[in-house]
Amino acid sequence: MEPKHIALYPTGKHENKPVGGRNGFQKPFTNVDEIRELLIEDNVDAAKIEDLAAEYKQQPVPFRAVTPLVHLGNRSKSYWKKLQPGDWALFYRDRHFYACATITFTGHLPALAQDTFGEHRTDKDEIWDLFCFFKTQYDEFDKDDQIPFEDLDLSSDGVLRYFKVVSDPAKVSEIVEMVKQTSKIHNLISVRAALARG
């Protein structure tokens, strides 16, 4: 099924910080059971939690989280609210997109954010509480095939500074075709295991 929206997530220089919404793709939750009580505390429907448990089958739960960006008129929250399961997310660094994942769940999860990020906040005193979970299997692009951000014609200077969501159907279709031409499916579990082995 084709996505209706595509989320664009910057990564890069913040990726190796010990906390922050940007590191959940590299450091996923162990499984749904690890976060079950927090999802309940955040009023996630019990049936949805069971759906997630069935989806992940004790596998890692990759995620990203963003702040609302209140100082910019809740810009991130406005984008995030458009997303739904089946939409895609592209991950960006060094002016290129290097991976793509499919969204399985979105939720405003303050209890999960507090447990995950503790007292850490952005310099605007916001916590990363707008979550997206992703399928464990994802697409990664070979270095020579990474998609230049400027090719999408979404910014005057060709740089993605903030989380953004593409909703225009023509632009979404264009991005989908780019991804189909360049992607190779990887499994996050095997990738993480390889990294652990060094």
In one word, what is the shape? globular
* Contiguous uncertain segments of 5+ residues: 14-19, 186-198
Got a strand count?
A: 9
Q: Mean pLDDT, nearest integer?
A: 82
Written as H for each helix and E for each strand, in order along the chain, the element string is EHHEHEEHEEEEHEH
Helix content: 25-40%
Strand content: 15-25%
* Number of domain modules: 1
Q: Structural class of the secondary elements? A: alpha+beta
Main beta sheet? 9 strands, mixed
Tally of helical segments: 6
**What distance lies between the first and last C-alpha atoms, to the nearest angstrom?**
36 Å
**Radius of gyration computed on alpha carbons:** 16 Å
Characterization of this structure:
33% of the residues are buried. α1 packs antiparallel against α2. It is built from six helices and nine strands. It is globular and about 45 Å long. It has helices at residues 32-41, 46-56, 75-80, 110-117, 169-182, 188-197, and strands spanning 6-10, 63-66, 88-93, 96-108, 130-134, 137-141, 147-148, 164-166, 183-187. The chain has one domain (6-197). The protein has 198 residues and is an alpha+beta fold. A hairpin with a 2-residue loop joins β3 (88-93) and β4. Strands 1, 2, 3, 4, 5, 6, 7, 8 and 9 form a nine-stranded mixed beta sheet that branches.
